[in-house]
Amino acid sequence: MSEQNVNTALLRGSNTKSKILKTSLKLFSSKGFKATTVRDIAGAMGVKQSALYNHFKNKDEILETLVSELTSSAIVQIFADKDTQELHKQGKTLLMSIATTFKLISFDGQNEALFKLLMQEIYRNERIREIYNEHFYQENVKKLSGLFFSMMQNEMIKSGDPLLLANEFFSPLFFYQMQVSLLKLDKKSTSSVVSMFEKHVDLFWDNIKIEKQSTLF
Amino acid sequence: MSEQNVNTALLRGSNTKSKILKTSLKLFSSKGFKATTVRDIAGAMGVKQSALYNHFKNKDEILETLVSELTSSAIVQIFADKDTQELHKQGKTLLMSIATTFKLISFDGQNEALFKLLMQEIYRNERIREIYNEHFYQENVKKLSGLFFSMMQNEMIKSGDPLLLANEFFSPLFFYQMQVSLLKLDKKSTSSVVSMFEKHVDLFWDNIKIEKQSTLF
DNA sequence: CAAATATATGAACAACTGTTCATTATGTAG
DNA sequence: CTACATAATGAACAGTTGTTCATATATTTG
Question: What is the pTM of this model?
Fold first, then answer.
């Protein structure tokens, strides 16, 4: 097999499949699944629509494949790169790093598109709701919960309901992420919202941390 | 005019127009605008599709009319029933009443449908984004901001960035509202999320209030 | 090179879409 | 009762949709 053959093989074959997915994601996330036609996808790839059917059974299968990608995307894997053992000892640093992960999603093309797809189809697609709820919301809130529980035991933060804390920490991050994606749609400035990610962590930590013995007393 | 005539008159005429809007809202909010056909709407009303065109120029005009209703809906009018003058003096009570307003939206059919419509079309409809951003987000955050500023001046709450506080108070409420609407779609229990509205206010107030002089000191 | 496999094309399909319009029915006002 | 306005109907339209399939082309394998 010559080098040229390798190159052409990479440009053809199952590479077309990933190109279909890439193009579809872009279109689905900006126009919505229903409003995107098979001709739109093929046209954006410079190919005839019938070609797509050599790689996918139908239009729904394209969406299903993209939705499956969600499970392994950064959106759902907030804790992926973080050491799961001694998490709580990092305290505020860890919270800040989670917030940063959220923030960065909005500025990576692939993840931003996946997030927009998620938001647009979540009310219509039960499978997306399931992934969002179990892999994104429940899983992360559970991990956060455990984290806050450990921090309470280590007397780093005030004791209270860890699940409530987890929700209160999570929900503004989600909201700010949505705000960023909406602002970017209209090409508006996102800077004021972007700064909220860190301000949220600062305020949140100030509220939950146990005050170190002050010299005033 | 006989009584019978009155009844038939009420069932005809401009009453049909509001029935179209009611039916369309129901369908748009559950299937999405694009996926709802003119035949769906007419069918659900027990009428032929051509009848709709006596009341609306086209399908888009139906959506536009519904979107205009958003501006005057409870979703956007969180502060509507509240006395705008001496708001800050109420402190936590006021915050709780705002949270309750949010919560109740999810349990009123009309408002729930409007919220779902908003969420489903916000990425595709610039007008909806504008209404959401200016009338819902900006306006309420601005009012909350002013409120917190007054509370700071009256030494009811700790001083800080009022705009940040407004966002941090607002975003969990929005998130919980979305969670409720998603859970209801799959007919799952909403009770754990519903209780979050109040827990949020409790925790939030505890964190921002200025501690009353305790007997410990 | 030849056979087999994988991929792309062009044309066509049936179903569905939003919309129009002449006709009919219904209710209102003089 | 008549004339008028309002609203519903049935039928049709032109365009768009997802999908199929026989055919052509390219690539891989033996």
Answer: 0.92
